[in-house]
């Protein structure tokens, strides 16, 4: 079964063709970074207008790359939310009209769910329960996925998301937008033990996260650096280590208690492209004897393939969206499986 997956939740216009929820035939992501970088962040109005211009060419390119035509497509999956409302509306409206025009089913997908399903874009898929850490520009969530479409959110961020703090600290360091990947790179040449970051555990109950303390400390330390050029690699390395330690520390706690039955560990979302997080997650998985699923970098950041993967399982369960489908900027993750 061939599904077209569309994501326009933020500033990437993306469309993919995926077979049976696992084989990626094409995955086109048209980034708007150049447009937004001079503002240091995404400008929602500009993003939605650009999605409108890019939607048709990106879909055409996805079909062309997959070497299929619209007639071969069996269904369309689209991100319904959360995200920027104007951006989401472009994808949802386009997907609705295309599905209606072609007379094929439409399925809506939650963006966090899509990030988890990036770990299913492979021949050998994770077993359930899957404990998945979703870390992106908008989310830092620890989710126990018990079966297809059955989610229990065990922890989430109380303030900033992991990607957000990477971007904010990187911006103050004078790195280009979006800062996460640039900070990651510069951190490789620094000493991670040069700056001390206390663990925010005490203020943070349950399996929740809190990154604003780490962010503020990083910004204050940056301000007091006598020589910024020499200090930035060390600060970036120490900051990255503090974020990764908190992210994986919670994972270990869950594995000890509520997620003790987990058969697989997943890490996904844009921040899963982080080299230290990938390395440490791998070590954790070996130490705990639990298989790790972490997508290749291009499937960590926003893409249409993960939407098609999630949509495939929704479609199989008969969860078809009607013509009244709407986009929601703050959509909650709800279970739909049985
Ligand atoms: O999943 P994503 O593409 O979009 C959202 O759903 O938010 O995630 C984007 C986020 C950005 O904050 C970006 O800086 C971060 O992922 N990111 C990284 C890395 N690559 C992307 N953060 C740290 N290290 C990276 N290598
Ligand atoms: Zn995302």
Please tell me about this protein's structure.
The protein is α/β, with parallel strands linked by helices and 338 residues long. The chain folds into 2 domains: 2-117 and 299-316, Nucleotidyltransferase, domain 5 (2-Layer Sandwich); 128-294, Nucleotidyltransferase, domain 5 (2-Layer Sandwich). Helices cover 43% and strands 18% of the residues. The protein has 11 helices and 10 strands. The protein has helices at 33-37, 44-66, 85-102, 111-117, 162-172, 179-187, 212-223, 228-256, 275-288, 297-300, 304-316, and strands at residues 2-7, 12-19, 23-31, 75-81, 106-110, 130-135, 140-147, 150-155, 264-268, 292-293. The strands form 2 sheets. It has a 5-stranded mixed sheet with strand order 3-2-1-4-5, with helices on both faces. Helix 4 packs across helix 11. The longest helix has 29 residues, at 228-256. The protein is globular and about 65 Å long. It starts with a strand and ends in a 22-residue tail after the last helix. 5'-O-[(R)-(carboxyoxy)(hydroxy)phosphoryl]adenosine (KG4) binds next to helix 5 and helix 6.
């Amino acid at each position: 079964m061939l599904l077209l997956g569309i994501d326009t939740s933020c500033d990437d216009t993306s469309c993919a063709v995926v077979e049976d929820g696992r084989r990626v035939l094409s995955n086109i992501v048209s980034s708007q970074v150049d447009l937004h970088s001079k503002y240091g962040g995404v400008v929602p109005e500009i993003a939605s207008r650009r999605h409108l211009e890019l939607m048709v060419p990106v879909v055409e390119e996805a079909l062309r790359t997959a070497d299929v035509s619209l007639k071969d497509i069996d269904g369309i999956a689209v991100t319904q939310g959360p995200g920027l409302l104007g951006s989401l509306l472009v994808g949802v409206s386009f997907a609705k009209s295309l599905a209606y025009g072609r007379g094929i089913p439409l399925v809506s997908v939650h963006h966090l769910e899509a990030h988890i399903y990036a770990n299913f874009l492979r021949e050998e898929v994770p077993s359930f329960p899957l404990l998945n850490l979703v870390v992106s520009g908008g989310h830092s969530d620890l989710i126990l996925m018990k079966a297809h479409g059955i989610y229990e959110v065990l922890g989430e961020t109380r303030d900033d998301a992991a990607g957000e703090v990477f971007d904010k600290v990187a911006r103050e360091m004078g790195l280009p937008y979006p800062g996460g990947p640039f900070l990651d790179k510069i951190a490789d040449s620094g000493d991670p033990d040069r700056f001390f970051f206390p663990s925010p555990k005490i203020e943070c109950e349950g399996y929740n996260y809190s990154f604003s303390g780490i962010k503020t400390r990083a910004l204050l330390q940056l301000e007091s650096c006598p020589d910024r050029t020499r200090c930035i690699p060390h600060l970036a390395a120490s900051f990255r280590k503090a974020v990764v330690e908190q992210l994986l520390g919670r994972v270990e706690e869950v594995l000890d208690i509520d997620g003790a039955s987990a058969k697989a560990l997943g890490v996904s979302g844009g921040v899963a492209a982080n080299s230290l997080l990938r390395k440490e997650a791998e070590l954790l998985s070996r130490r705990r004897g639990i298989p790790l699923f972490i997508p290749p970098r291009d499937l960590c950041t926003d893409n249409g393939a993960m939407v098609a993967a999630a949509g495939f399982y929704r479609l199989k369960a008969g969860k078809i969206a009607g013509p009244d489908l709407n986009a929601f900027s703050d959509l909650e993750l709800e279970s739909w499986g049985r």
